[in-house]
Every structure is written in C-alpha cells, then in structure tokens.
Design the sequence.
C-alpha cells in the first residue's frame, strides 16, 4: 500500500473524504478512496456533543479503533488536540492527525506540533490554522502561521476557508510541505486546486451535512408522495461486514 504521505502529490492531490462512523467509511473505501479523514463536526453531532471544545476524545478513540480495521489510511481530526490524544490515535491505528490552532498563539501550536512529532515521529501531523475559518481571511497571518508550523515539523498545513486562487497560490508558495484546502462547493474544483499546487483536498463536514439533507429529503418525499431515489444501497450491502485487506 502506498504510504499516507506519498498520497499527497503535486498535480494529483489526495481527495480526502471525511467520515463520522464505520458505515460511511466502509462505503467510501468500497468506492475506491485510499485514505479517509474524520470530521469533528460529524463525530460530535452524531454523538449529541458540541464540536470544537474537545468533547469527543473518547468517541474519536473508539471510532479510530473501529476504522483501523478497514484497508485504508486514516487521519483523525483531534480539534486543538494534545500530545496524549495524538499518541492515542497513533496507537489505535491512525496514520495522521489534524490539529487546529483555533487562532491561539502560533508559538503555542508550534510547540504542540514539535512535541507530537517527538513522541510519534511516524504520525502525519496536518497543522491547521483558522485564519480563514468563520472569520474574514488574513493572508499575511496565514502565511506566517503555516511557515511557523512547517518549521516546527508539521508534515502538512491546512487553511480551511481559503478560497481565492491567488491566496491559495501564495500559501502553497510559502511552504515546502503539502497544503490542504477545504473543498468549497461552487468555489473550487479539484482540477483547479491541483493547478494551484494544492496536494490535499478535504471535504470536512460536507458529506455529513449532505447525508442529513438527504435523510430529511427522503422522509419528506415519503410523507408527501414524491419520488424517492431507487439507487440506494441495499439492506444486504449496508449490513455487510467491513472489507478486509
């Protein structure tokens, strides 16, 4: 199997679907995706917990142990994270973790990255900065932070919310490590992001939110007598055991 790091290729970025349970992961493995990430929002919401406040450490660990049985590389979103959480995910079978700075001090996040790499050097650390997430973007600050995190030993950097092609190109040019961009429907194509030098494209919570929308749409169609799509997984397919290597 190609290593997880080697999947981050210039010109052919890793398209990383983000999952929230074993079923969503299993169907994406069967669809041919060589690597999966978890979505912190999906895992939190599916367990009735809030996202972004480190409330899902136990759920993440249980899920990672289950997903590690699938023949796929796995990277786990541990939110702002900790050395202990990163070590636990590596021990459970994760190939990588995503750790976000939540716009705290860059030096503090860099210190966490260095500590994680000392403890589990084989773990792919994707260092996220929130300069563009749910706030007006600050390109200069994004560049400063991704350089700081790459210098600290991050294997990749992630700037969710980054949308403008010139801004994406500037971040790519700022570091030698792979740049991860969150796919924004209507704003991006994978081909365009590849041309800009992006080496990883994540779906984030998109698939989870799409699944919620599809469930509600189907229930309304049943209630209202509208057409229901028929090309759904069968009971037997959904009830099948996980694929093995």
Sequence:
């Amino acid at each position: 199997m190609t290593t997880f790091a080697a999947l981050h290729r210039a010109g052919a970025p890793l398209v990383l679907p983000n999952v929230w349970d074993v079923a969503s992961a299993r169907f994406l493995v069967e669809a041919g995706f060589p690597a999966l990430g978890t979505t912190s929002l999906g895992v939190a919401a599916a367990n009735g917990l809030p996202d972004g406040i480190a409330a899902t450490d136990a759920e993440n660990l249980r899920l990672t142990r289950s997903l590690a049985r699938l023949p796929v590389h796995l990277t786990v979103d541990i939110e702002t994270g900790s050395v202990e959480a990163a070590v636990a995910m590596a021990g459970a079978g994760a190939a990588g973790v995503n750790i976000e700075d939540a716009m705290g001090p860059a030096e503090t996040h860099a210190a966490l990255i260095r500590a994680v790499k000392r403890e589990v050097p084989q773990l792919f650390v994707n260092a996220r900065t929130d300069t563009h997430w749910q706030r007006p973007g600050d390109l200069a600050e994004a560049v400063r932070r991704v350089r700081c995190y790459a210098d600290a030993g991050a294997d990749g950097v992630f700037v969710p919310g980054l949308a403008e092609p010139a801004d994406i190109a500037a971040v790519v040019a700022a570091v030698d490590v792979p740049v991860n961009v969150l796919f924004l429907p209507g704003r991006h194509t994978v081909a365009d992001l590849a041309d800009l030098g992006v080496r990883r494209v994540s779906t984030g919570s998109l698939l989870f939110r799409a699944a919620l929308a599809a469930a509600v749409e189907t229930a309304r169609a049943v209630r209202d007598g509208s057409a229901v799509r028929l090309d759904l997984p069968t009971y037997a397919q959904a009830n099948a055991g996980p694929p093995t290597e």
Remarks:
- The CA atoms of residues 83 and 115 lie 7 Å apart.
- The two ends are 10 Å apart (CA to CA).
